[in-house]
Amino acid sequence: MVSIITPSCNSSKFIAQTIESVLSQTYENWEMIIVDDMSKDNTVKIIEKYLQIDKRIRLIKSQKNVGPALARNKAIKEAVGKYIAFLDSDDVWLPNKLQVQVQFMINNNLPFSYSAYDVIDENSNYLKSFYVRDFIDYKGLLKKNIIGCLTAMYDAEKLGKIFMKNIGHEDYALWLDILKRVKYGKGINEPLARYRVVKKSISSNKLKTMAYQWNIYRKIEKIDFFKSIYFFLFYMYNGLKKYIFNLRIKK
Q1: How many CB atoms are located within 10 Å of the residue 16 CB?
Q2: 154 in helix, strand or coil?
Q3: Residue 154 φ then ψ, to 5°
Q4: The model's pTM
Q5: Contact status, residue 125 vs residue 86, Cβ threshold 8 Å
Q6: Looking at the domain that runs over 2-250, which CATH code has it been given?
Q7: Within the chain, which residues score under 50 in pLDDT?
Q8: In 3D, which of 78, 19, 21 has the Cα closest to residue 48?
Q9: Which DSSP letter does residue 166 get?
Q10: What's residue 202's pLDDT?
Q11: Whole-number pLDDT of residue 251
């Protein structure tokens, strides 16, 4: 029923916790497809131990480093589930995540959903909860990405398999792609997952991420210059709030 898409590269510190969170799901009709993107640490050895524990877990080894977008696409191509869900190799799900979200999608006949999530640090300490709107449409998402990749799920039977573009902010571009096909996505305003903030993400190149966002507006979504400025101002405002929060975490 659910295909879980997990890209992995040098994830030995957290990958076991990620897999364990899937094994702990109260909903059991799933497959987990992990694409290892040329890890140089013990990631593959850790994953291979879990392959012996549960046959629902599958491992694909990339022959060259392709990045998270194309790694996810490899897994999506192999997926057989009705629903496509995403879980990165340093994040975790709460035990009821799949059961709540699958039932939510069935009850509301939804092609696309997402949920609230908790934020944790590298030692799994709770930092805050990120709550979401009940629904989001295309224009709303252009102003602010409220969808955490670890909470998103789409119905591949209704929408077909939709793949990520190999660009920065590839998950955000995917949500926009989906919301051009459907009127809106619906959110579950209950934390069902835990997003891990790591130091490298806090100190990431802000100018580069801004360029990614502008590129999505202009080159991917083909929005005209002045409308792009309008949406970019919203992005800057929300990004500043997030940056201040991350600085507090770093201290």
Answers
A1: 16
A2: strand
A3: -125, 155
A4: 0.92
A5: no
A6: 3.90.550.10
A7: 202-203
A8: 19
A9: S
A10: 43
A11: 54
